[in-house]
Design brief:
By secondary structure, the chain is of the alpha+beta class. It is about 50% helix and about 15% strand. The chain has eleven helices and ten strands. A hairpin with a 2-residue loop joins β2 and β3. α9 packs antiparallel against α11. It is globular, with a radius of gyration of 21 Å. Bound molecules: flavin-adenine dinucleotide and methacrylyl-coenzyme A. Flavin-adenine dinucleotide binds next to β1, β3 and α11.
Length: about 375
């Protein structure tokens, strides 16, 4: 059964983009979807499958080709992350975070930094994590308290980072830490490696969803790193972190589209097969209208995500606002669509083996991480009011 809504439904897609989406959809169908429920139940982080994805260029999606990446655009990236999420939103979400880290090193790093980390990141022989949130500073990220103190040719980092995706499994950690005054301008970005003495991890958090990847504290206890591990200038760390998140938010938005798209497809197949009152449930117009609304809302969200990706590619001044709009709208819409898919499956939607409740649980956190949807509204409102 085909639907008019899918990652490939955008009318403005080029031949290359259609090929990218098809290749990634095939990867998701073959390597992610068949295992997604088991990985969720076993809390298994499929690092071997991530490396298979890297063979297709998924480890450095928007790392420049001269740096060893795929050199694709954000508009390509959202197709990729939506396609991956049709197989497993949790694994797709991790791919998106890893790519945010790789892009930040390519974009803000110097030649030595790119040479040190990007080959392994692009091959996904090394995984990346992004460390902004702290126990006392989530939405108000500029209030972070981790410190990096200059000591000769080194920095010494001390603090705790909370909720870090991939922590423990990743080799490369971009850590935002305070080097100066209070507020956003006193923050710098650093690359910490897993083997650096003084780095340790909290226990893997027990979560509602996103179980196919670890979430742990990253604990920095006097981690001494050479000054050459600083990304960009002192005091630039908050800007670097925010610019990374603009693209990251699009990745999460796209993952919501993919998860919801999969839930919609499954609902169509289920209702065609399921009989009640002497006919397939798909014949009931009330349910057809529900499906029509789900497809329409996904198409609208996809259009906004693609518009925001295009704005980011062009460096448009309103790109950050559009990324926030897209993240807010696509993650709320994706969650609502997945929840309706669960309802359409009746009691079976509530059972783990159908995979629908897992999509709902995975998509719930997209409304929280990479900036809550309240913070997305704050960003949009500041853009509107000029505050
Ligand atoms: P708080 O900031 O305490 O917010 C609590 C509530 O208040 C929220 O509803 C929030 O929207 C609301 N609120 C706060 N301020 C305002 C305001 N001004 N106006 C209106 N409402 C407001 N972080 C990383 O750095 N790296 C990661 O890899 C990472 N991965 C994560 C993975 C998971 C599974 C989870 C759950 C979180 C992850 N995070 C990560 C952290 C995530 O980004 C934060 O949880 C999020 O930014 C919110 O911060 P908080 O949890 O401290 O909530
Ligand atoms: N893009 C580019 N620059 C940005 C930006 C963005 N999206 N957001 C802020 N900035 C700049 C801003 O322009 C300003 O620059 P300048 O000093 O040159 O004027 C600077 O950053 C400080 O910004 P604000 O004055 O707006 O800072 P404030 O503290 O008032 O608010 C806020 C910033 C709330 C927008 C920011 O703290 C935020 O986005 N919070 C949410 C935190 C978040 O998203 N965490 C996600 C963690 S990662 C994760 O969850 C994963 C799963 C990986």
């Amino acid at each position: 059964m085909t639907t008019t809504t899918a990652p490939t439904a955008g009318t403005l897609l080029s031949e290359d983009q259609l090929a990218i989406a098809e290749t990634t959809l095939d990867f998701a169908r073959e390597h992610l979807a068949p295992h997604a429920v088991a990985w969720d139940q076993d809390k298994h982080f499929p690092v071997d499958v991530l490396r298979k994805g890297a063979d297709l260029g998924l480890g450095g999606v928007y790392v420049r080709e001269e740096s060893g990446g795929s050199g694709l655009t954000r508009a390509d990236g959202v197709l990729i992350f939506e396609s991956l999420a049709t197989g497993c939103p949790s694994v797709a979400g991790y791919f998106s975070i890893h790519n945010m880290v790789a892009w930040m090193i390519d974009h803000y790093g110097d030649d030595a930094q790119r040479a040190r980390w990007l080959p392994a990141l692009c091959a996904m022989d090394a995984l990346g994590s992004y460390c902004l949130t702290e126990p006392g500073a989530g939405s108000d990220a500029a209030a972070l308290r981790s410190r990096a103190v200059r000591d000769g040719d080194d920095y010494v980092l001390t603090g705790v980072k909370q909720f870090i995706s991939g922590a423990g499994a990743s080799q490369v950690y971009i850590v935002m830490a305070r080097t100066g005054e209070a507020g956003p301008r006193g923050i710098s970005a650093f690359v910490v490696e897993r083997d650096d003495p003084g780095l340790s991890f909290g226990p893997d958090e027990r979560k509602m969803g996103w179980n196919a990847q670890p979430t742990r504290q990253v604990i920095l206890d006097g981690v001494r790193i050479p000054a050459g591990r600083r990304l960009g200038a002192e005091g630039d760390g908050f800007r670097i972190a925010m610019n990374g998140l603009n693209g990251g938010r699009l990745g999460i938005a796209a993952c919501s589209l993919g998860g919801a798209q999969s839930a919609l497809h499954r609902s169509l197949a289920y209702l065609a097969d399921r009989e009640a009152f002497g006919a397939p449930l798909l014949d009931a117009q009330a349910l057809q209208f529900t499906l029509a609304d789900m497809a329409t809302e996904l198409a609208a969200a996809r259009a906004l995500v693609q518009q925001a990706a295009d704005a980011l590619d062009r460096g448009a001044p309103q790109a950050a606002q559009l990324c926030a709009m897209a993240k807010r709208f696509a993650t709320d819409t994706g969650y609502a669509v997945a929840d309706r898919a669960l309802q359409l499956h009746g009691g079976y939607g509530y059972l783990s083996e159908y995979g629908i409740e897992k999509i709902v649980r995975d998509l719930r956190v997209h409304r929280i991480l990479e900036g809550t949807n309240e913070i997305m509204r704050l960003i949009v409102a500041r853009g509107l009011t000029g505050s």
